[in-house]
Design brief:
The structure holds 2 protein chains of 2 kinds. Chain A is an alpha+beta fold. Chain A contains 6 helices and 4 strands, in the order αααβααβββα. In chain A, strands 2-1-3-4 form a 4-stranded mixed sheet, covered by helices on one side. Chain B has 5 domains: 101 residues, Glutaredoxin (3-Layer(aba) Sandwich); 209 residues, NADH-ubiquinone oxidoreductase 51kDa subunit (Rossmann fold), CATH 3.40.50; 84 residues, Ubiquitin-like (UB roll), CATH 3.10.20; 89 residues, Up-down Bundle (de novo design (two linked rop proteins)); 56 residues, Alpha-Beta Plaits, CATH 3.30.70.20. Chain B contains 24 helices and 18 strands.
Chain lengths: 160, 587
Amino acid sequence: MSDHKKIDFKTLQYAGQEGRLIPLLQQAQAQDGYIARERLQEISEQTGAPIAQIYGVATFYAQFRFQPVGKHILRVCHGTACHVAGAKAISEALESHFGIHDGETTPDREYTLETVSCLGCCSLAPVIMIDGATYGNLSPTDIKKVIKQHRQAGEEVVKT
Amino acid sequence: MKILVGLGTCGIAAGSETIYRSLAARAGNGGPKFELGKTGCLGMCYIEPLVEVLDDDGAVWQYGGVTEDKLDRILDEHVAGGRPVDEWLVWSDEGRGNEGAYLARQNRIVLRNCGRIDPEVLEDYLAVGGYEALRKVLQGKDPDGLINLVVESGLRGRGGAGFLTGMKWRFTRLATGDHKYIICNADEGDPGAFMDRSVLESDPHSVLEGMAVAGYAIGADHGYIYARAEYPKAIERLNIAIAQAEARGFLGDRILGSDYSFHIRLKEGAGAFVCGEETALIGSIEGHRGMPRVRPPFPATKGLWGCPTSINNVETFANVPWIIANGAAAFNCLGTANSKGTKVFAMAGKVRRGGLVEVPMGISIREIVFEICGGIAGDRKFKAVQMGGPSGGCIPAELYDTVIDYESINRTGAIMGSGGLVVMDETTCMVDIARFFLDFTQRESCGKCTFCRVGTKRMLEILTRICEGEGRDGDIELLEHLAHLVKNNSLCGLGQTAPNPVLTTLKYFRSEYEAHITNKKCPAHHCQKLLSYTITEACTGCTVCGRVCPTGAIAGEKKQVHHLDPSKCIHCDECYKSCKFHAIVRS
């Protein structure tokens, strides 16, 4: 990507502090949606940490992605309670609704599908989270409605 | 008259923001007069959204399952007319309400303010005695006495291992170092546990106060909260609370005019289950890959940046201000000989009332599942509870009189863990549950120890094979052998406990494994590849199943009973899910 703005990592509040790598990577991902190769180089140049070390840290944590993502991240919870309540069927319904697999992005670049371990809303299982909004007590047939509502209402949380 | 809407993550997911907005619109609209406020999570997740009405005389009325169209009646009859709507009332302090049983047996120490105060308003916390414990401690000027008090209370770490909190503080106090640190482990990674999220969202100041007290006890000047990035609401409210506490002098330099300074910083985790292990967590704060290291040295002597560090869990910290305010005796009179106080459980799975339950130690599993949580949803048969997440195990129905304390739970092969309690009924396949947890730990293994990295992978392959009907003679013995190797040859708790779900299900549900391997049957009718499908006479010939079948295994004329060719069936379950007439039978 050639059109991205350079981030001055030295001026960020974390720079210069010990333990800065993870917050810097989080910052880069918050801005671009993923960790671009150029960002790793920038962080390396400005912090002095070798790029291999930064890459090693970035790949260790599940949060960091190395591919561009869609406008919205749709997380499907596969925690224990959700598993018992049929999270697999929810994932399948989402995959067939969007025509993509886990980890992929829709062709219109609107939604990226992600499987996560637990969103901590176990008593509402099965649960999905679109950006910051949680939707619970779902059945596979609710999926169409939830996505439609989300497309219409933007960030608004609506009971399903 | 005041109305409070529960705005924890569960409540919001159930629609409480809509309720709040709707009430806000009505408040200024000439109708009945009331003051509108927010609160956190009361723990009754199964009946969200919750709306609390506070009468002018102080009486509390809690409504559950509130929808927008119920608001008119609540406002007209209760707020304007003074007649509570019993039909939707879940709880009231004078004993009315349909869900009183859920709260009656609970003893709320950690959750004392959850759902009672507005987590974003410091005055609310102060009004219920907030930061009084910190004030008392600073006035007492006796860190050793404070540590003795916490030791005497018998408080043990609520994160899972159950080490005595006061002892941990004492070791850290006695250690020498230029700096000392307090870390709050809020990386609640166990799938099935959500009490830490709820406490952070609903009562963040109690955790901050607990940390400041701990900092004073050990002589720390800095504290870190390591919180899961998956909990955006908790992080948002913690940031608000830290700013408020700093502004009012409860945190920062020279707290409350004393010479004690303590700063708290929030670190967002980046998604790694192993970072719940204390040395991995420290590595992560330092900006490294979160991999555990050999102990000793323990963090109490050599922790963050090489300095003495005490790491405690959210729930542990939330207990601390209460213990100081009420004394050690008030705490250690609850519970059993070696497990004092209360424990919060996150109830989920096939239980009728799911949510947060705080009970005194020593209560039995049966009492929690049946008396408090109303038993099994859909009146199915109770099969097991899973305790302790991926490090824990399944306790079968016949052991449901096991009491809750660290040692009794350990004897069953499970662990207390952080307190996730997932209830399972007869439709849950125990082999599949073991496979599910192994899949989790195998993915989350940091890769440092060979047995954890490779051993869990091999175990997962065997379990997957069994679930798919490819199990072989000797698989059970092989699983047991590998389980012991992984347990004994891993450095940290993740590897040492990863085989627990397999070992406990083998111990209590061995026949299910045998049915899968020998008879190629799944007794719970869960493992799809082991199911056979038949179409009964109830078929109306609607042709839906034929159309959804991806392999063309179903044939039949319209309005005629259809037929399924087992040789073509790939057990995808699509026909079963699509049939509206229950004409497809799985066996």
